Amino acid sequence: MYFYKENPQHSNNSDPNFVKEWQEMKDEYEDLKRRIMKASATPEVPLDSISHDVDDGFAYRSSDIRNHSSVVKVLYENSGDERDILPHVVYVAREKSPKVDHHYKAGAMNVMARVSGLMTNSPFILNLDCDMFVKNSKVIQHAMCFFLDCKFERDCGFVQFPQLFYRSIKDDPFGSQMKIFLSTLARGMDGLQGATYCGTGCFHRRKALYGVPPAADQYNNKDGRNFHNHAKAFHDLKTSSWSLEALSNTFGPSSALAASAQTVMRHTQDNVHSSPSLVIYEALNVASCCYETNTAWGKEVGWMYGSTVEDVMTGFKIHCLGWHSVFCIPEQPAFLGTAPANGPDSLVQMRRWVTGLLEIFLSKLCPFLGIDRDIMVRQRMVYAYFTLWGFLSVATFFYAILPALCLLSGKSFLPGISNPAFAIAVALFVSIYGFKLFEFLRIGGSIREWWNNQRMWLIQCLSPFLLATFDVLMKLLRVSETVFVVTPKGTGDEDDACESDFTFDSSSLFIIPTTVLFINLAAIVSGSVIFVAGRYHIFRDKLFAEYFCSLWVVINLWPFVKGLVRKGKRGIPWNVVMKSAALALILCSSTRRQN
After folding, report:
1. What is the CA radius of gyration of the chain?
2. What is the distance between the alpha carbons of residues 518 and 203, in angstroms, rounded to a whole number?
3. Would you say 523 and 404 are in contact if contact means Cβ atoms under 8 Å apart?
């Protein structure tokens, strides 16, 4: 973005030195861009891209993103030999092999934790996604105030900052900015045992990531429980005698890494290398794809494996050890990132989230299991609420089609207008949607924003939630495995006249919502025919509630209504329309009208 213009708009009074440095920086950027494009087009790294230091792994690295060796490159600002100071950048690329599961983001984070443990062994770690940047220069100071100023160690296992977005679309048309979660749920969790880990914008205590409970001697006067019993990876180790041999069984065969872990647990600074450049060979070893074999990485140590939302799973694991977390909201945003810029991307992201949450619920870390875990009951309930999101889709799907099918068959399950119970149904409807509207207005949102999020909630329940539930079911039946899909995060389609318009593709994500739309459109036509035919008393006393529900579903699915008559990216592809129409016809034909 900095060099996207051909002619920079420098004023005539610009400092010549600034203009010179700007041009030099642009030339270096263009050279880097050229080498990256050249590397991506060839099976091997070009000669002009290979580091002169063969010990860092660059000389032997293939450009194949699925099969390459590990690389650890220590970069200093100056070209001089500055081996006794901390480097400005340490570039790490873990080894990958098609025959070894690399565990996606969680595996990458564990490699980073091991390499940093060898090079600096810093007690705190900042985790940021590649699409985020620092907005508040004092963010480290804010986090350290919680870590270093807490009364007890367990009060701060990690500090989570809100995930905010720049260049976000007005009124959040795709429901991807999570304002209610940040303003209500996360703050509420902060009053319990702390907010969940959100995957980015988080400062971690290395000791908590290593699966070690907080110091137990602070709580012996409370209830006499031994808090060290909650870490299975260390159940046979005593705090006063964590031997290197025992730690090697947990952290892997690297004796240097075991020694660095020992210093973290004993709060000492022994056995820490003063120069990161001296441990590159060992760092390449711990970044290999086979290093984690027969270790506790991903099970009890580091970021957890077994879910496509490794962040929530890791945060829950840390909370189960007795740690608390902090949700810090400074006046100036700490970090800014990008949100999905269109409908398909937001649905893909939600599908991965819900899939991972269901995987947590069905794993050994289910919030309802483990009575010996040191986690509050109410904190368990919050995690249970998150992990059960996927099951909402089943109920939502049936409630979205049941009124329509009843209307088509002439049956009724809701009270008519003349029935006193109709007032109860109206009160429930108004109170639920009124409360949601109040939540958005309370945080400074608009009515349009509330409606966009309400509409997207129904679409999400009928699309990614439902497919995520099906994916997890197939995994339980060992039919297929869940896949970690990286969410595309761009700035939207520049060719589109209105960036808030919903776009479509041939994905299966759009089949179920389109099917539900067809069924409810048919029901509305059927109900309108009954009303026009003069059978007003039947419509009023028996079918009005079902008619209103069908109409409400269609209004919520209005982007799909527009997609039926549009072309291009904003139109629903014909293969999706045909599949949805066939499913809708099958469901509608199963009903029989009662006169």
Report:
1. 28
2. 48
3. yes
